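Predict structure. Chain length: 652.
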Amino acid sequence: MKHIKKNFIIFLYIFILSALLFLELLFRVSIIGLNRPEYLIQIFLFVNAYTLFILFFLRLLPRHLLRTALLLIIFVVTFIYFAQDMYYRIFNGFFSFSITGDALAGVTFIGRFKKKIEWIHMLYLIPPIVSICLFRYYKNQDLPKRIFFFKNVWDFALSMFIGVALMALANLTISRTTVSAVESPYTYSDYDLYKENYSPYRSIDKFGVFTYLQRDIAISVAEDIEKNDMYQKINDYFFEQIDHESNDKTNIFEDKNFIMIMAESFDTYALDPSLTPNLYEMAENGWSYDRFYSPLYYRNTADTEFMSQTGLYPHNHVELTMDAFQDNAFPQSLPRLFANEGYDTYSFHNYTDYFYPRSVFHPETLGYNEYFGSERLGMLDEDDTKFGGKHQWQSDLELMEKTVDILLDKEEPYFSYILTVSGHLPYDDSHQIANKNLPFIKAVFEEQNREIPDESVLYYHATQYELDLAVGYLLDSLEAAGKADDTIIMIYGDHYAYGMDREVIAAYDESKRDNDALDIQRVPMIIYNPDLDPMTDNSLFASIDILPTVANLFGLDLNHNHVFGQDIYGDTANAVSFSNGSLLTDDFAYDIEKDAVSLFNDMMTRDDAMAATNEYIYRRKMNNWLLTIDYYAIPKARKDTVFFRRSRFQPL
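Prediction complete.
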């Protein structure tokens, strides 16, 4: 009996270990690559520990549940690896445990899922298939009832001790030292990466998918620092910042009406003199920003919206930032800043709350006077989008017609935020708006003898043409009402058109560096008014910088040291911080996935670049803590002694 029991336990240990190692290696071949084999030893130690913990759990179960539990574990673990693989291929990032509760909304992307399936994904079936075969084999074996139970308390304790000891050993192999030639308070070791999980890609690369999941769950469940400590560290960091000074763009739009349009998937190649003539003319005759980035964060459009409305980063350990912190205080949100200057504020969107709770977040959290969603505008009911993944994206032109009717009856001055949806994926014949406009797009390509691109590009242009019609209607209406001169219009993309393959985009859009993971997230931004002198601005900035920049242009009373975005016309050097930890500045680009630094300034070194990158990682941590403790709700008197002292430090 002892011999049978020992052999069976050893066999299960080898099988579980082999399955986990196979999945780790398969994932690396599929996504990460095998160019850093030195990390495999550390991953092997962690996988051994997880194997022992799974084995320990199985030994607690009665015989009739053992086989089913093992089969279920293998299926769940395999699904996690496969899901991370597919998520990365669709969104160029990794999902967090915290967003798994919103899986229903992800059904919308089922079309993208089908297109991303490759032959290598068939190999993910191997562990479940082998498990089923073992299940069937041992189902016919007459195993003794207590073959797997712990025989006594010492057996129980020893089994647990071995698993914990191996996990401790794996932790001890992680380097605690930091090596940098640049003196900086923002240095990070490999252990900091393991503990804080600040870069999913780097965590998976160094420690494996299962360890990333383990740390992600641990951080999502509980922070390992007291709120008072968070508060003090936020204060300390804000104390280091340079105060904002007036500049040549300060107050130039004072008292003007402001219409801010965040356009769904509005990308660089959408600007075309024939396909989108109104948008093209705005770019040519207004201020066009050719180095504006809308980095794709954890929840796509919602996170870009959160950044542009608050000047803060989204939190990467919650399901949805605008929902998790809905009850937080945001006294410096964009609508509240305008309201403080006597503006009425309104927001408009031609979709329901199916994905994001805007009907609450906009008026109650951000402070808009009124929110006009698709239901209130009479365009679409919530019941039409409650189930299933088929979504009928609504017309941007119809949205603009209804919006203009409302705005022209309002008191001035006003700030209006308009979020469009016609440009949403999928870019195929299932898109109602795209089908309507496709004949026009095809006709332009044929009349001008232009090379016919990938079919998805044609459908994409057809969705953006609807946006162009909407913008044209807005411009004509303001002109007819005599309001054009008094109104500033800003339009920018919420993210690049990830509904198309990156290879297709790289082949079609010559303005973007070929298949560059950072440059592909560069999208258009335009500021337009008939009286503006046309210019192309090459300032480097991102969606988080919109709020402080708008505050400067309109002379809004913003405490710039209270937000993490920066006025692009200020004295502080700017940077684009991507969701995976990569960083782009005027002096360098750091691609965290390739661990590659590109220097654009002869005075810069790799150590300088890494010091700056580490500070932005620290900024993101301070940002998370700020949201966690509801920092803005803390009485102002407690903060005055910190925030209005001149900084001792220079910008990056």
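Summary: The chain has two domains: 2-176, 257-562.
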